[in-house]
Specification:
The chain is an alpha+beta fold. The chain has 10 helices and 11 strands.
């Protein structure tokens, strides 16, 4: 199987002309009315249930987000008594069936294949910024050594409205064509940049927490999905109102790169049986043995 045959089996259509232009030019596009209000309520309720079940272990499979908006190694964060600024929950497909529907969003899969070629699931993390927190430095998620060095497609699936007051994502349209914006705690270490235009770029921010010229606040209703190139400069903002802002970050990467969460290591028999063959291929999994994480 390959990406094309997997997406054909899932009845995924090509991006529309408008979606492709927006994605190639600005680095993102928004889908509205992807989920019904009832589906949003179900996923939001599962968010709360899983948080109650995981307790202090929420996010421990991948990373923890401190009050400073930076991501921390879970073990080091717990040992240091890290204060959490935004809730994160990982390994969600093995913990709940409620999010299975998120695996079938055609334009997200089409955009991932359009940008990356052969793709697989990278990660899936729930996130909610607490009142007074959620402000992240402006950053890109991945390395960039030269123009067109694409690694990752991200998506934000909203279970609650994302408004100007509850910590909307800010994004700089077109910045996916600029150099990587490496911020400690937010992404990978700087890469060996080879492109002279990227090396000579003069627009790096002096303060990654400050507003950047031309940035856009993504404000979208519950049930919407924002799809974006992870090379784009972006970041969460402060939840000033304390209103709920539960959502899912679902990411796809190239098949030659590592997954954020190694799905095979965490795979349960229940999840494997729920996945059809194209989904198993996109998860990059085979029938599980007994998982040490199950």
């Amino acid at each position: 199987m390959d990406t094309r045959s997997a997406l054909q089996a899932m009845n995924v259509r090509d991006l529309t002309e408008e979606q492709r232009h927006k994605f190639d030019t600005d680095g993102y596009f928004v889908l509205e009315n992807v989920y019904t209000p009832q589906e949003c309520e179900e996923m939001a309720a599962e968010f709360d249930r899983m948080l109650a079940d995981d307790g202090e272990n929420a996010g421990m499979e991948v990373s923890l987000e401190g009050e400073d908006g930076r991501l921390y190694n879970p073990d080091e964060g717990r040992e240091a008594g890290l204060k959490i600024g935004s809730t994160r929950i990982s390994n969600i497909f093995n913990k709940s069936r409620a999010f299975d529907r998120c695996l079938n969003i055609g334009p997200l899969l089409a955009a991932s294949a359009h940008l990356l070629g052969e793709i697989k699931l990278h990660g899936a993390n729930l996130r909610e910024p607490h009142k007074g927190y959620g402000q992240q430095p402006l950053h890109s998620d991945v390395q960039k050594r030269f123009k067109g060095d694409w690694w990752l497609v991200n998506s934000a699936h909203m279970f609650d409205d994302m408004t100007l007051d509850n910590g909307p994502t800010r994004i700089v349209p077109g910045s996916q064509h600029w150099p990587e914006l490496n911020v400690p705690g937010e992404n990978v270490m700087p890469s060996e940049v080879t492109d002279p235009d990227l090396l000579n770029f003069e627009g790096m921010p002096e303060d990654a927490l400050a507003p950047y010229p031309g940035e856009v606040m993504i404000t979208i209703p519950a049930g919407s999905v924002a799809v974006f190139n992870s090379s784009n400069w972006h970041g969460g903002t402060q939840n000033r109102s304390g209103a709920r802002r539960r959502m899912l970050h679902l990411t796809y990467t190239r098949r030659d790169l590592k997954q954020q969460l190694p799905q095979q290591e965490y795979l349960t028999q229940d999840l494997y049986e729920r996945l059809d063959e194209p989904q198993r291929w996109l998860f990059d999994v085979v029938a599980p043995t007994v998982s040490e994480h199950a």
